Amino acid sequence: MANFRVLPSEFVQFGTVQEQDILLRASDFYDGLIVKANLVTSFPGATYSFLQKIEKDFFIDPITYIFGTKAEHLNSEDATPKDVYMELAGKYLGKFQDNLKSGQATDPYSLTKEEMAETTRNVIAFQKHAWDSVGGDGDIFQKLLDSISKPMAPLFYVAPYFIVRENNVQESLRVNRSLLEEGLKLETNVAAIIPLEKGILDDSTALAQVAAEYSKTDCSLFIFWIDSFDEIDVTPTRLINLISFIQTLKRKGRVMNLFGGFLSAMLTKKGLDAFAHGLAYSEKRGFEPVQGMMPTPMYYFLPFHQRYPVDKFIGQFSNIKVKEFREKICNCLICEKLLSGDPEPASAMADFLEIQKWISFKIRSKSGALMTRRKAIYTKRSHQLARYHYIFNKHKELALVKSDSFAQLLAKMQEDRAYFSPLGFDVSPIDKWTQILGVLGK
Amino acid sequence: MKLYEDIVHSRLCRHLKQPGRLVFSEFPFLSRVVDTILYECDTDELVAIEIKLKNFSALLDQIHFCGHFADKTYIVIPKSKYDRTDRYRKLPKDIGVITFEPVGKKILFEYAKNPIKSRMKNERLRATAKNLLRQHFKGKICGKL
Fold first, then answer.
1. Considering only alpha carbons, which residue of chain A is nearest residue B9?
2. Between B27, B68, B124, which is nearest A342 by CB?
3. Centroid of chain to Cα A139
4. Closest Cα to residue B54, out of A72, A366, A23?
5. Which 318-357 residues of chain A touch chain B by CB within 8 A?
């Protein structure tokens, strides 16, 4: 059985190659990286050189589950499968690619024992040899030198996995367990990703069954992922079930959350070893891939442990002096820099939403008329400011959770509530966290 | 005539148009979109207008936001709503009210409450808004825009 004692506690999901600069410059503010297989396939050279430079622990998420979801999610605008998914499917299993070509999802329950073994071999081989072809023949010397000085091996491998469906827990577990056991035959340091539909959290029996099944394997690193799980809205029942799930798996090995935020940070006091988030938009993630335009840059508001467009607080910021802003809201490098150029927090923070251009589009309104709507496209600088501010604050948040007890965190929340409420802030997030802390503190 | 917000909006913009005034509907500012912005060329004033047929609490939140960069702010609500309660007469002095009512195929607009200049205005945010207007109306010289 592999030993994961050196597992870093805070991972960042390496979402796009555009985030490289920020991840490099802010590399002291997180511990490890998760690279998705589609990113490795699309940008092998860029991911290779980035990981060489950054020298952080990382692992590759093989995202095999997507071949079991609706095939249209993997299509490009012309309704044909995206090249990257076709390539990945071809590397994993011919059946995945054939189904994708014909616009169908692969039914994981229909995989034969041989197909599961082949998928596992291919998925592990993909993670082992992800960058073997980078550079081409001409760069072979450089590649050799690189590999001697800084080996490009992931911290561990991840077995293929599919979604654990709430309406068919038994079968989902059968398939996932087989895939995991095949992986453990090949390598000792193989982790399991356990993607759970949200409803399973309500069913303590089903959740216990999931934990029990995975515990029967020789795996010693379990990475769970709950579909579109908004941590702040967790009900007491779900939270109790989740803690019990973590603690059951913990008896067998290390436990990590693939997408988490403040609650996950607090759960590190209840047995969770590690958690991951994106640079700005991935404290929760649905199983269905999201596509769309560049979103609005969000400001991480540490006292509420939530992200908002900064103008949500523009009125309230007007009532706050710079000194108080630094003490009560944020004194990170980014906010300090903005405040040094403008002594009024309300307008200084507007730099987080600097508009580069507007795009117009037509929509049909309720009255049937064709209306022009506008959407702002924000500057690259605004997006960067939001990401740096986010990563600095997440680091600070985790340090705070590590140093304080639940009672101390609760006292700090009450103090913040007493400060922000009279200033006109909607303090309902603090109330929700207080309720969560009540359950965690028991 | 069944009224929809977009019909009231487009009629209001037509009603407001006059020489020396720039009218801009659907104005994106920070993360929001303001229904209508007027720029008064003679007085160098920015006026923000928000329209709602229902959900009036959201309307007040939107207009408070506008007060941070506009010189004057107005809400536009149905006349029947304004007459039914004195809630809108008692709004802060820096929020004006325009009412509307359908009369035949027309919509009549009326200034029911005139506002004083916004007390929450932030000069830097105002300058940013003006700059965005300048980008949009590039080529049109009007007052200090």
1. A371
2. B124
3. 34
4. A366
5. 318, 342, 344, 346-347, 350, 353, 355
Minimal C-alpha gap between A359 and chain B (Å): 10
Phi/psi for A247 (5° steps) reads: -70, -30
What CA–CA distances, in Å, run from A330 to A310, A341, B60? 13, 16, 28
pLDDT at B143: 65
Of B7, B30, B31, nearest to A367 by CB-CB distance is: B7
ipTM: 0.80
> What value, to the nearest 5°, has the Cα angle with vertex A296 and ends A232 and A419?
50
Residue A147 has pLDDT above 60, yes or no: no
pTM for this model (two decimals): 0.90
pLDDT, average across residues A138-158: 69
- The predicted-structure confidence for A383-403, as pLDDT tens digits, reads as follows 999 999 999 999 999 999 999
**Cα distance between the two ends of chain B:** 39
Interface check B124 vs A, CB under 8 A:
yes
Q: How far B76 CA lies from chain A's nearest CA (Å)?
A: 19
How many beta carbons lie within 10 A of that of residue A437, not counting itself? 17
CB contact under 8 A, A365 and B68: no
User: Which residues on A lie below 8 Å from B2 (Cβ)?
Assistant: 367
Q: Is the alpha carbon torsion for A423, A425, A426, A432 positive or negative?
A: negative
Angstroms from A428 CA to nearest CA on chain B: 17
- Dist. CA B145–CA B138, nearest whole Å: 10
Residues A380, A336: Cα–Cα separation, whole Å = 19
What pLDDT score does A436 carry?
97
CA atoms of A317 and A98, how far apart (whole Å): 56
Decide if A64 touches B, using CB distance below 8 A. no
The answer for B67, left when phi > 0, alpha when psi is -120 to 50, beta otherwise, is alpha
Q: At what angle do helices A406-420 and A380-403 cross, to 10 degrees?
A: 130
Q: Across the interface, do A314 and B68 touch by the CB < 8 Å criterion?
A: yes
Interface probe with A: pick from B31, B53, B95, B137, most Cβ of A within 10 Å? B31
